[in-house]
Amino acid sequence: MVYACPGVGIFRFRAMTVHTPRFPASGKIGMALLLGVAMALATPGDDLAWGQSSAESQPGMPSFIAVDLLPRGFTDSGAYGISGGQQVGDGSGQATWGHTHALLWRGRAAGVADLTPDWFLDTQAVGISGGQQVGWGSGLATWGHDHALLWSGSASSAVDLHPGAFANSAALGIFGGQQVGWGSGPATGGHHHALLWKASAASVVDLHPGGFDSTEALGISGDQQVGWGSGPATGGNHHALAWKGSPASVADLHPSGFTSSEALGISGDQQAGWGSGPATKGQIHALLWRGSAASVVDLHPSGFDSSQALGISGSRQAGWGAGAATGYHHHALVWRGSAGSAVDLHAFLPPGFEESNAFGVDPSGIIVGDARPRGSDRPHAFLWAQYVDVKPAPVRPAANAVAPQVRSAPRALGIYTNGPVELILTDPQGRRTGYDPVHNTSLQEIPVSNYSKTTLRAEHNPSAPDPPPLKALDVANQLGGQYTLEVVGTDSGDFTVYVKTSDARGNRITQSYSGTTSPGRSSQFTFPGEVTIFTAFAVTLGINSASKAFEVNGTFTAGPGGMLSPDAQPVTIELGAFLATIPAGSFAQTGQGMYAFVGTVKGVALEANLAPTGDNGYFFSIKGANVPNLPTDNPLKVGFAIGNNGGSVDVNAEFVR
Asked: For the whole prediction, is pTM greater than 0.85?
């Protein structure tokens, strides 16, 4: 979703979860992408729409294909940066329990990587260069504050760039091992200060010059950074700014005849952004500079009322335009240095899309952005590529890459469900967090806890009733001892609640609890707050895709202090996205310390056996039949837990197709 924010720059944000504050007030989240190489165009498939010259296109205009990047399990997404055949952005939906998660694509919706580190609730990735990505995140790991983040292609690679003297921060641009963004806190009077990093929190440089109240750095190329500032020096208006690594180096790019301006991206000696004022009759116009205010070029195309340039690479600029010809909706645009060169990319989208934006472009001319279907407020991430023969090139390795350092997360507890129920958690000290639907009471007594609800509506069937909202109850630094979860019905039907518990190293155990409910009916489940991880864990896995069956055989050694009682504790098996918990009390002892279970859990036929091998070691075997949505690709994660004792490992399964 795209909104106008301070400075009139567009900023994509989500107001879906009731608890989530909006993070940066930046005027822009796409950035210039400078190290991209030609990307291999995917073979046409379901997510491709072939662009063709339309009646609205001028003769000789290039033709594009449009690729819908919305991943399965997501209801909305946006792509903001592109480099080296990869694209970054964010998305939300059932796959994220309604939270916004940073995403990394490789040209197709399938195979998208979720960059959200453990115990972050919301993350966004907005810039990419040299195999690294930047953005920000918040959650239990940050005590609810926004922290600038740097990734190297995976969630586990996340580096927290947040400087200690600031309360909130975000990284918005990246190039050549350096990152730019902003930070704010008591030391800045709550105002944003433009920041520059070199891959670590300790390396931060505050670029904020004298005479300004607020500044943000949004793009970087070589030794130059661009953004905006406002304060007494600008009469309180936003002015496009450029730096060379220090506050004293700041240059005001604000052109004559304009009231407000921002530089949003940079490539080489060119800067892209927007401005408005008397020269534009108060409308927003896309602008291009070459290092000085006097060099400005107005990119605003004929037939549009307003426009912005959001990204730049080489000779190309990406952004949007709107006016009477577009029904006053945004249309994604790409330029090559002049107003007359503008191409309306919206014409190449599949039918049914009403609004679009282009946020980033790479040197080969591949463009990323988003498009919103008519009648919906949930955009899809899109990629546009000119319809020419494009040869793939290898991804360029990161220059002077810094070894990732993962910030230690607190112990954490997360409880999730989309059933017709509400959740109330009571900790070992009797404090509660959740929502009591019987007495219409919200509870938040547990320190550093949060309860949120998100409704995901059926976009293609507006008349359909809303499904039960997704509920998420999160707690940081949970206590040892017993927790009690009360599940209270708000409607009649079945429910499943997933409980994820982790230790300070990020080792996680997931259990599920299921039942049937009705309005006002209460079900209670108990579980310990601490996690005991197996000291050794090894498995083999076979999957028969045709018969929807699996077999897991494994061994483990119980961790120090672990208490195993299979006949009195729930037992969980996790295969990729498939998870089944055999309820406590279901295993029967068969002699010589062995346990067995044969039965059905949520329609899946399971046969499980557990036997001691000595020295706190155990062997287990679990077979399943009639299993929906079994994993189809290697490697995949296998997890096994008995009560709060468990472990997980990545394996290569043996598939029978």
From this structure: no
